[in-house]
Amino acid sequence: ARAAVVIPAAGRGVRLGPGAPKALRTLGGTPMLIHAVRAMAASRHVSLVVLVAPPDGVAEVRSLLDSHSLPERTDFLVVPGGATRQESVRLGLEALPAGSEVVLVHDAARPLVPVETVDAVIEAVRAGAGAVVPALPLADTVKEVEPAEAAGAPEPVVATPVRARLRAVQTPQGFDRAVLTRAHQEVEGEVTDDASMVERLGLGVVTVPGHEEAFKVTRPLDLVLAEAVLARRRR
Ligand code: CTP
Ligand code: MG
């Protein structure tokens, strides 16, 4: 089975500071979402990419896809997104035609993920996993705190999970389509990734090795890193 990818790209990018919606901002002169699309279409297993655009940016995203070179073996759809990432992913899933049994969800905000990571995720789903996440060990020790109301106020530390057991997870996350569809139909409440919705159904999620270059562009310093990674690739 070939894979379909949903790319949620409908966020504003508040943490990046004022400017265009994050996915439309450029890296090395090319919009972030075009980098993300190319990263997915680089896999010969990917036959369809559904881009979930800012609700007021569907036409702009369509014209960006038309004006950039993309592999011909891959089809593209653009749909309007929602108010939360979760809602945007659900709208992307609803646009999938029958036939794609392996579905990936990939943040437009991770424009530089290498194709090896994409293929590793697809392979693991094909091998029978219902849900797969690329994951990396942490560099920082992580504390659980009692969050303070005021930003910047001291927060009491509650616990320190054993770092060696923790993983930072990335995208693309890969799923058996039926599993992901059910998760988006049945799981309520705030989540920060798709795999956690599958966990809430009581179903298994496994990791494959993630990649440093699959980091998420979230804050201004991440743009500096992304530009440096691109410059290194072009050398
Ligand atoms: N996303 C989306 N629809 C939303 C919110 C987020 O499709 N309503 C997408 C973003 O475009 C991004 C991915 O989800 O590709 C991961 O979200 P995040 O990094 O948080 O991006 P933003 O929500 O845009 O950033 P911020 O939280 O700083 O506003
Ligand atoms: Mg966000």
Automatic annotation (TrEMBL):
Keyword Metal-binding carried by entry: no
A Pfam family hit: IspD
Superkingdom: Bacteria
Catalytic activity from the UniProt record: 2-C-methyl-D-erythritol 4-phosphate + CTP + H(+) = 4-CDP-2-C-methyl-D-erythritol + diphosphate
Site (Positions MEP for the nucleophilic attack): 163, 216
Keywords: Isoprene biosynthesis, Nucleotidyltransferase, Transferase
Stated role: Catalyzes the formation of 4-diphosphocytidyl-2-C-methyl-D-erythritol from CTP and 2-C-methyl-D-erythritol 4-phosphate (MEP).
Family matches, as PANTHER family: 2-C-METHYL-D-ERYTHRITOL 4-PHOSPHATE CYTIDYLYLTRANSFERASE, CHLOROPLASTIC
Protein name (record): 2-C-methyl-D-erythritol 4-phosphate cytidylyltransferase
